[in-house]
Design a protein that fits this description.
Blueprint (H helix, E strand, L loop, with lengths): L3 H6 L11 H7 L6 H7 L7 H4 L23 H13 L8 E4 L2 E4 L21 H32 L10 E4 L4 E4 H16 L6 H11 L4 E18 L4 E18 L1 H12 L1 E6 L11 E5 L1 H20 L9 H12 L11 E10 L1 H4 L2 H10 L3 H7 L6 H18 L2 E3 L5 E3 L4 E3 L12 H10 L9 E3 L10 H10 L10 E8 L2 E8 L2 H16 L4 E2 L5 E4 L2 E4 L2 E4 L1 E5 L14 H17 L5 H19 L35 H8 L3 H10 L13 E5 L4 E5 L21 H23 L14 H13 L6 H15 L4 H13 L1
Parallel strand pairs: 7-10
Antiparallel strand pairs: 1-2, 3-4, 5-6, 7-8, 9-15, 9-16, 9-17, 10-13, 11-12, 14-15, 18-19, 19-20, 21-22
Helix pairs in contact: 5-16, 6-10, 6-13, 6-15, 7-8, 8-10, 10-15, 10-17, 13-15, 19-20, 24-25
């Protein structure tokens, strides 16, 4: 009889303790006594050259686990970030600027405010100093600024506004909830079309339509209406019927009249932000709130970011728009610039910098001033520079308008917290009458944020700060303006690398004393534009040692850690496509020098292991009788056929190379049978052939196998609105097929004009029919197609149109 209790309390195997070599070699002191060595378990054995290097940090990165998932309401986190942003305005007087119904936080520091708070965390900036920084920047880069503005505006003129559908979840102001980007775009497009009459909007026309709605006397829009109803509900516990009050929300069509009322409603729609708890947060115990703009403001933000991303590629110091070997080369070239104006620097320090409360401290006002001054003709005339062109002036107006909207923004506070007693549970509402039900912690922040809430108690006014993820590229340019401000280049200089809030600087000076002064001057220069370098987290080392965007440098690049490897995450289509996408992605990375052969091998292993886990594919040797491991497909439990040298090749073709017996060849024929019931038939696609110089019909080169199965969609269309949406989506799909069959060029390039698509198709059909000998039946069919495109449904309409024409 087995004594189960003894087995639980007394383990069968007692493992001997083994000392942690990593900790001993990196943390234990060099001069350990014998007693300490006994406690530690072993003496230090490795040479210092192996342990005194930043490369040893690799084993400390524990990024292998799943990131924590945020749950619960985001209200406290939203209140925390908003209140923090307001608290960083250290002005004592004239803190608020009233613009119509909006209270905008004034963050510009003035003489009457006293001494500038360089040694406190603040969100204030000095406009006069920012102006000098912009002037210095323009002297060096005015040509690049103008070129990038022209490129950005030309793209906005040509590109269709549906680029906004590229995102995932987006805030819909008409539903006060987060919806898919495509749905949010459609609702907003319908709203703009109804109120302006404009259709087929490009990016810049989208901006124009938004501005036109602000001049309307009436505004048609969808609003939410709450209704309370009394219902009788059966209580299973007491077996009684009780009356309960339920609240329902429905969408109603509303018309707002009067220009002032229209502007107030429209701007509220354009400047709302949804709030979420940030998931996938690494190395953080507490959650943070993140934000998502509406389709109104999102276009402004996109155009501003496009300009700064273009600019980042052509100015020194910015790496936000590049990656891989290109980024590495730019970092190396910037750090090699280690001389003053006329001599080599005597003292050099390298700083790995950390900016405190980056998002809460940056001001929409400082961005607006930067975008205004970069294209100000009076400044350019003073500096003897060419005037800005029409593209630059137009971009400046778009950017400043977008920055103004950021200054009057409001953010969704989120659901109330759950409350309960012995019998019931409910949710708080963010109203003063619910204060007695709040705990002390919730009550403390609610009473502070309550004056900032909108009348519907759904949003919080958040004038200062940028919220998380807003204008990352723009803030990079803003941060680079401060480099070398008011410094004498003969005695000191700063070389800065910046990617949003992450920066690394090289401080050069002709003496140790001036080097210390250079470091402090750079800190104060950044402070003048509300960038607060942390004195405790900023690390100053000798030249050649630092960390930048998780790239560690010890004289040379030694490691890159902390990078989220989304490229090796399975797509989730089907096992065969997921395996092939991993291999194809690895081959592309090798071709662009993003990874080396060793990195490619690791990426292949991790990616394939991830796909196996997702689809629960067990590795089985000898699974099929007569089929060797080299021929068995990955999706069927086989080994990987790919290495870093052949990952560009298709799997079954590689397997066929190893097939030796008739049984193995038959196995491949069976799994690649195009008539199998599991996979879809390959659909031909129109593509442009460089070899033939024309459009050709192509079929996917990857052979379909039984493992390229199709998944049944779990999407349901339950409600009446969803059923209408399904019919609408099907109609759009059929419409696209018709357009592409008449004009095949639309498969490779979007139309770039506002021409009505029906008129375009009519012109194409009439042009194509010239010179073709159509018989009477074919001509009649063509005419019917043209009449349908014109909106003529039957012959009676055609006859009436002919009569009208004859009577003219």
């Amino acid at each position: 009889v087995v004594d189960e209790e003894r087995m639980i309390n007394e383990p069968e195997f007692a493992f001997e303790e083994y000392p942690n070599t990593l900790l001993i070699e990196t943390i234990a002191p060099d001069d350990m006594t014998e007693a300490e060595e006994i406690v530690v378990g072993k003496p230090k054995e490795l040479d210092k050259k192996y342990t005194e290097t930043l490369a040893i940090i690799s084993p400390y990165y524990l990024y292998t686990g799943t990131p924590p998932f945020g749950y619960g309401t985001q209200a406290s986190k939203v209140a925390e970030t908003v209140l923090r942003a307001y608290s960083f305005n250290l002005k004592k007087k004239n803190r608020v600027l009233q613009v119509g119904p909006y209270e905008i936080e004034r963050l510009q520091w003035e003489k009457e405010d006293g001494k500038f708070p360089h040694h406190e965390t603040h969100g204030n900036f000095v406009p006069a100093e920012l102006r000098l920084m912009v002037e210095s920047f323009l002297k060096r880069h005015h040509a690049q600024v103008d070129d990038c503005a022209e490129k950005t505006i030309k793209e906005a003129l040509e590109k269709n506004s549906d680029v906004l559908t590229a995102g995932r979840q987006t805030h819909c102001p008409f539903r006060s909830q987060s919806v898919t980007a495509a749905s949010a775009y459609k609702y907003f497009f319908d709203y703009l079309t109804e109120n302006t009459g404009l259709t087929g909007l490009t990016c810049l026309e989208w901006i124009r339509a938004i501005c036109l709605t602000l001049e309307n006397e009436t505004l048609s829009h969808v609003s939410l209406e709450e209704k309370w109803a009394e219902k009788v509900k059966y209580n299973r516990v007491t077996k009684q019927r009780v009356k309960v009050h339920t609240r329902t929300t429905r969408r109603v069509k509303t018309t707002t009249k009067g220009k002032e009322n229209v502007r107030k409603v429209a701007l509220h729609y354009y400047t709302q932000f949804a709030s979420y708890l940030k998931h996938k947060e690494r190395a953080k115990k507490d959650r943070r709130a993140i934000a998502s703009a509406t389709m109104g403001l999102r276009m402004f933000l996109r155009i501003i970011e496009q300009f700064h991303l273009h600019l980042a590629k052509v100015i020194p110091g910015s790496t936000i728009s590049i990656g891989g070997e290109e980024k590495k080369a730019k970092i190396t070239n910037n750090l090699a610039n280690d001389s003053l104006n006329h001599e080599v620097a005597d003292t050099t320090t390298q700083g790995t910098e950390d900016a405190t409360k980056w998002n809460e401290c940056l001001s929409p006002g400082s961005f607006a001033l930067m975008h205004r001054l970069l294209f100000e003709d009076s400044i350019r005339a003073k500096l003897g520079l060419p005037r800005s062109n029409e593209y630059g002036r137009l971009f400046s107006r778009v950017a400043v308008t977008g920055n103004f909207m950021m200054a009057i923004k409001s953010i969704q506070i989120g659901q109330g917290t759950q409350i309960r007693d012995q019998e019931h549970y409910s949710r708080l509402e963010w109203r003063d009458e619910h204060i007695p039900y709040m705990n002390d912690q919730t009550k403390e922040w609610y009473q502070k944020v309550s004056p900032l809430m909108t009348p519907d108690r759904q949003y919080v006014r958040a004038s200062p700060g940028m919220l998380m993820g807003m204008l990352n590229a723009g803030s990079t340019t803003l941060g680079l303006l401060a480099a070398n401000h008011r410094m004498n280049g003969d005695t000191m200089k700063v070389v800065t690398l910046r990617s949003s809030d992450d920066s690394m600087s090289l401080y050069l000076a002709s003496s140790p004393h001036l080097n210390r002064r250079c470091i402090e001057m750079n800190r104060q220069n950044l402070s003048l534009i509300a960038i607060n370098l942390s004195t405790s987290k900023t690390i100053l080392m000798k030249k050649g040692i630092g960390e930048y965007t998780s790239w560690y440098i010890d004289e040379k690049f030694i490691s890159q850690y902390g990078v989220e490897t989304s490229a090796i995450r399975p797509q989730g289509k089907n096992p065969a496509d997921d395996f092939y996408s991993i291999a194809k992605g690895t081959a592309s990375s090798l071709q662009t020098l993003t990874v080396n052969p060793l990195g490619a091998s690791v990426r292949l292993r991790l990616g394939i292991a991830g796909v196996r886990r997702l689809w629960r594919i067990k590795r089985e040797i000898g699974k099929r009788e007569g089929v060797s491991d080299k021929v068995l497909l990955l999706s069927d439990g086989g080994k990987s056929p790919w290495t870093c040298m052949n990952s560009h090749l298709e799997e079954t073709s590689l397997r066929e190379h190893h097939a030796e017996s008739e049984c193995e060849r038959n196995y491949l024929l069976r799994v690649r049978n195009p008539e199998n019931p599991f996979s879809e038939e390959p659909t031909p696609e129109v593509a442009f052939s460089k070899e033939m110089g024309t459009l050709v019909m192509e079929i996917t080169e990857t052979p379909r196998t039984v493992f390229h199965f199709t998944k049944r969609s779990n999407r349901t269309f339950g409600g009446p609105n969803q059923q209408e949406q399904a019919i609408e989506e099907r109609s759009y799909g059929e419409l696209l097929d018709i357009i592409r069959s008449v004009d095949p060029t639309t498969t490779i390039e979007y139309p770039k004009s506002g021409t009505n698509i029906a008129d375009h198709l009519i012109a194409l059909l009439e042009t194509e029919s010239i010179g073709i000998g159509l018989d009477e039946e074919e001509s009649e069919m063509l005419q019917k197609a043209i009449n349908k495109l014109k909106g003529i449904e039957d012959d009676d309409q055609v006859d009436s149109l002919d009569d009208d024409w004859d009577n003219l």
